[in-house]
Amino acid sequence: MTPTGGEATVDAPDVSSVNADVSVNFQSHDRIPEHVVESLIRLVWKTREIARDNLFGWSQGFTFSSAEPTALIQLHGGPCAVIAPVQAYLLKNAIYTSPNSNADPRWREKNGNEVLQATFLELFSLLDVSHFTLVLPFGNPAKRNADAMVHDAPENPDSFERDFHLNLRIQKFSSLNQLQKFLTDHPTLFSSSFGILRFLYSLILSKTIQKIEDDLEDPSEPLIDAAHGHGNQPLTNLIITGRAVNNVWDDVKEFGGLRLQGIHFRPAVGYLSLLENMRYVEVGFYLKCPQYPIWLLGSETHLSIIFALIPSLVTSEAEEAAAIRVFKQYDEHGSGFIDTGKLKDVLTQLDLFREDDYVKSLQDKLDKDNLGLILRSDFLSEFFPHTNKFNNSKPFSVYHYNGLLRNGDTPVKYHHGRATILEVDVDLQIIDIPEDCGNGIDSDSAIVRCLRTKYPRVQIVWDDNKIPSIN
User: Fold this and answer.
1) By the 8 A CB rule, do 147 and 193 touch?
2) Could you say which of 76, 80, 437, 450 is catalytic?
3) What are the E-state strand segments in 88-151?
4) What are residue 31's phi and psi, to 5 degrees?
5) 284 and which of 25, 66, 218, 250 could share a cystine (Cβ 3.0–4.6 Å)?
6) Rounded CA gap, 461 and 445, in Å?
7) φ, ψ for residue 228, nearest 5 deg
8) Phi then psi for 337, rounded to 5 degrees?
9) Does the predicted model carry a pTM greater than 0.85?
10) How far apart are CA 234 and CA 213, in angstroms?
11) Which of 302, 400, 415, 450 is catalytic?
12) CA-based R_g, the chain, Å
């Protein structure tokens, strides 16, 4: 199972300025039954004996940077598997109103909490359920927000885990509209202590523990690594797509009689992995080509984000995504090919030219060895040869986000750069570099190596020639 977090603990900043929804006392709501708590802990942590440091790493709420109103911060190692996907959707909602809309030039100035509430609602809607459950704070939600969250250890280590899990309380909702109203009335519900973990538990209980276990290849493997406290890939996939599948390839693959589930549609935000650059994993088309130009970047130990303000960077791939879906309908075993006799059916469903003479000519072209098979890659190359060629090698703005706070007083900020996607016949050194960017071309950083799993000839010039960290 591929880890998506596991960062070293860092010093936390002063978060005493974070507002809490202190007007509501949640003690009157239902406790979660003990057997449900046990099942929840087993699914998320595997054991009731949770390492104290690991649980404490997940004790923060959703908190914004003092320097970027729309940038969430990560106080300790561990919860990037939740924070980064939520941040990706938050950016989508701050920047775009639809896949074809232009970027809002004021996206960095928006009210982060307001956008975050819309983001929460969208992530619950991805679960494809009709009833929802929220895990609420116990008593005064502000109690640990300005106090214990900035400490490096719990005030009472012996009761830390016990008190949290024994005091879990829930409220249920029978519609998305009811959920929306409650979140609107309590805008900082997940900003107080343990807000990130309570949000994760809310997603799980809304989808149900059983359905999460059905998604997993091995339900005995927890969503959070028991040894190191980082989130595993199914956890990140749950937030991105609504399903806690283990893999990041497209659809289903069969190995030795096992059907291993992957991603089944183009989500709003994507995912690229440094481990694919190392040939350890395979990220499929759906995650590489999301609806918006926003990608999670997975290193060996952390999740960060890279995003652009040009929707055409991915909207040009929508037709190819449709072609892939249709092709797979006729690829009965998910083997990456179809019988030549099914080519006309594929063309018909895609509303492409399908006269008999043309179909016969295309069959001969795509099946040169007369095997009676047409590979999906050959089919896509025939009809979509220029999908990954963008903007005629002209530079465009990209931003990198890393929410993990470092030692010192440097706040979390978006890091700006100018990216160039080169066509095959363009020399790597012949690009138009803006004069104010210096001459430091980033052509081999971890960020660029992630991006090259999608854009093989991409380069970035970062502001001040400072390459941001992916870890």
Assistant:
1) no
2) 80
3) 132-136
4) -75, 150
5) 250
6) 11
7) -115, -15
8) -150, 165
9) no
10) 10
11) 302
12) 23
